[in-house]
Amino acid sequence: EMAVRILAVDLARDVYQLEPTNPSYRQLQLLAVLDASKRLLGPNRFVLAKEVSPFVQNVSASEVDQALGVALDRNLMPAAIAAAELAGQLGDISLLSAVGQKPSNLVAAILSGQRHLQFAAAKAIAEFDPRAPFPGSSYFAKLMTFLANSRATSTGVVLHPRPDVAGTLASSVSQSGLVSRTVYSPQELFDELNSNPDVAMVLLTDSSSSPVSVEIVQQIRQNWRSRQIPVGLLNRSFDRELRAEEVLRDDPLTWVMPLTSDPALVFSQIERLRGYQQPWPVSDVQRDQQARFAVSWLAQALSDPDSYGFYQLNSYPDALLHLAESRGWGQEKNQI
């Protein structure tokens, strides 16, 4: 795969050098450079504008925004993350304007559900520091209150109506290195996904009847907070497994598998499912960094209602109360 990507970068460069002012060639080159740069640097380092400029000269904020839109459409996550990182450095607040009837590409990045991309987009918007509403500004505020409530402990959630079965599955989750959390109804699961930014994986069985398990997975995918979380759907029979596979065949983040009582097999299933977190999992250190950034922004916004009142942060009392009661944040927590 790496050899193919290197070849793609080389081909994009060759085409670009033939006609550097051609918009299509510039976009192809920019996407290739963003993708390669982000894969090289990984999730812990932002791609810097000075690292891109030698390969695409005088790149504009508009070109970066267009690259972000293309990367989102084509699910090129490393390139999309790098584009969002670059957008924040270029400082053009006009990138928050709506695109036709849709919100901006940076807001679309938040709605993607991909946590590294969400955080890059959030940092870009915070860098712009808007002082008036923009299309999708409520999603930015919701994301910041969501991230701020992280406890920096990657969590696997198990849904099963029977506590004994849920407990057995949760034990395997814990052995895999995740904090385990058990819930006993679909509504409890949805509440957890809407309030806990540390959920890294969901395990559920085909025991739910309302809604049925495949519908639960589909609802997870419709939620911008959870749509990129790997889901393991455990089935009690081969026929049920086949039906679920047919319904969910286009969902690359869901693994339909047999329900087993063999702890070793369950553990191996969980380990494989954790590998579905692409392009990179979110580490506990990254969760902590994202939470600290969000808490700092919330403290700033809440302390200056004249500038940031349009976010209506007081309309999220449950999230703010949970944050105030959680682990200490020093001065920022006192402000909140």
Quickly list its features.
336 residues, 5-stranded parallel beta sheet, 5 strands, globular
Describe the structure.
The protein is built from 17 helices and 5 strands. It has 336 residues and is of the alpha/beta class. Helix 4 (61-73) runs antiparallel to helix 5, helix 4 (61-73) packs parallel to helix 6 and helix 9 crosses helix 13. Helices cover 57% and strands 8% of the residues. A 5-stranded parallel beta sheet has the order 2-1-3-4-5, sandwiched between helices. Helix 12 links the parallel strand 4 and strand 5. The relative contact order is 0.10. It has helices at 2-18, 23-41, 49-52, 61-73, 77-90, 105-111, 115-128, 137-148, 163-175, 186-195, 213-222, 238-247, 263-274, 284-302, 305-308, 317-325, 331-335, and strands at 155-159, 179-183, 199-205, 231-235, 254-258.
Indicate the multimeric state: single chain
Mean pLDDT metric: 90
- Runs in which pLDDT lies below 50 for 5 or more consecutive residues are none
Name the beta content range: 5-15%
Helical fraction? 55-70%
Helix-strand makeup class: alpha/beta
Task: State the major sheet.
Answer: 5 strands, parallel
Q: Count the DSSP helices.
A: 17
Radius of gyration: 21 Å
Q: Sketch the topology as an H/E string, one letter per element.
A: HHHHHHHHEHEHEHEHEHHHHH
Number of strands: 5
Query: Shape, please?
Result: globular
Strand order, largest beta sheet: 2-1-3-4-5
What is the rounded distance between the termini? Answer: 47 Å
